[in-house]
Design goal:
This protein has one domain. It has 18 helices and no strands.
């Protein structure tokens, strides 16, 4: 539930603009969301790396290392966040040079970007805090943080974009304020949890332990692998969105709406992967093969059942969601024509998410990087063969891509399983 609430940020943004703005506003939100997917998820290792290392330290009973893992992640988040704000001009220049939308869409998207970038330090630090909560299995606390973030963001979106009529700029302002406020709440909750777990005689943080060179090198190596893997993954969706723009603003807007449905489903499925991350990491720290096998088997069965239900829900009721998200008739029609392809993607995506969770929990990051490189090659080749089929061919290539992601990771699974308990 906590993880499924993450894409509500995007759904709320899209729904507010879809009902109160224009096609250009909706396209601008699509471009803005795409840019920040690149900017933020480039540093998604702050969440994923923290989860794996914290779970392994917790499983081994090393509480000082659990706190040090968080300290390293927060230090990186603060530095990167400040750099992103300082470098916002070249980042924006490069991003909009690569995107290919109408002049009106790009102008509005630039306003959105120039405001939302100020939330970068808060967003990245919250990644680290959420990664720790996942690694420690504190899903109820994570749910509280996510509901607070989404509830506040929804209210501010309606106020700024709806009541005050600030459009896409209001959406960006609401998101930034929600991100900074959520950081304060999450930090307070995590501090309370770690303080309860530590010995009375221990300092909360030890600078020597946080800056321990072998640990820093291990963290850096894993983080670079995850960063490259995430860049490839985000590039695939960026490529999909940019190719959608070639078919016009209506197709761009309609595919953005369908991506919100996929995002909601993906984060829901990834919730099982998050559980696997924590249990796999703890089982490796405790050297327990039996726990590893049980976690993988049960979570995968649950994820498959959930994927079937989500695909059926989108296939049968997706047009109702499209109607709620936007009142622009041309966008509704275009989105509804692709709804079954969207459902097929969701159905076949669960295996990739599950394997991602297993590999993150085990800190098998080099293998994740290699699998990502192989699968993006398959995606680009599939689109090259299917491009004559138009927008349907683009969706088919995306479906092939998510299957390729799972197959590539599956090839590395036997060696990971053999390493558990060693």
């Amino acid at each position: 539930m906590a993880n499924a609430s993450v894409p509500l940020l995007g759904l709320v943004d899209t729904a507010v603009i879809g009902n109160l703005g224009s096609t250009a506003d909706l396209g601008a939100i699509a471009f803005g969301a795409l840019i920040f997917s690149f900017v933020y998820w480039t540093f998604g290792f702050l969440r994923m790396g923290t989860t794996g290392f914290a779970a392994q330290a917790s499983g081994a009973g090393d509480e000082p290392e659990v706190r040090a893992v968080l300290g390293r992640a927060l230090l990186i988040a603060a530095c990167v966040g400040v750099v992103l704000i300082a470098a916002q001009w070249p980042i924006g220049l490069a991003a909009f040079a690569l995107l290919d939308g109408s002049a009106q869409v790009e102008n509005v998207a630039q306003e959105y970007f120039s405001i939302r970038i100020w939330g970068a330090p808060a967003t990245l630090a919250t990644f680290a805090l959420m990664g720790l909560l996942i690694g420690l299995g504190k899903s109820r606390t994570l749910l509280a943080v996510q509901l607070f973030l989404n509830g506040l963001n929804a209210g501010l979106d309606i106020l700024f974009a709806g009541v005050l009529g600030w459009g896409a700029s209001g959406i960006a302002m609401g998101t930034v304020l929600a991100e900074w406020t959520t950081l304060l709440l999450a930090g307070w909750l995590v501090y309370g949890e770690l303080n309860r777990r530590k010995s009375i005689t221990d300092n909360f943080w030890s600078s020597a332990k946080i800056l321990h060179l072998p640990s820093l090198l291990k963290t850096a190596s894993a983080n670079i692998d995850i960063m490259l893997r995430t860049l490839i993954l985000v590039f695939s969706f960026a490529f999909f969105v940019n190719q959608s723009a070639q078919f016009g603003d209506v197709i761009l807007a309609s595919n953005h709406i369908l991506l919100q449905l996929i995002s909601f489903s993906a984060f829901f499925l990834d919730g099982y992967a998050f559980v696997v991350e924590a249990i796999v990491g703890a089982s490796i720290g405790a050297k327990r093969c039996d726990i590893f096998d049980l976690a993988v088997r049960r979570s995968t069965v649950l994820a498959l059942i959930t994927a079937i239900l989500l695909a059926l829900l989108i296939g049968l009721c997706g047009h109702f969601a499209v109607t709620l998200i936007t009142d622009i008739e041309a966008v509704r029609i275009a989105a509804n024509q692709m709804i079954l392809l969207c459902a097929t993607y969701v159905l076949l995506s669960f295996a990739a998410f599950q394997l991602d969770g297993i590999f993150i929990g085990a800190s098998y990051t080099r293998q994740m990087r290699n699998a990502a490189a192989l699968s993006i090659t398959v995606f680009l080749m599939a689109w090259w063969f299917l491009s004559d089929a138009g927008i349907e061919g683009l969706w088919a290539a995306m479906i092939i891509y998510v299957v390729a992601r799972a197959m590539a990771l599956l090839g590395y699974f036997p060696s990971l399983r053999r390493a558990v308990g060693q």
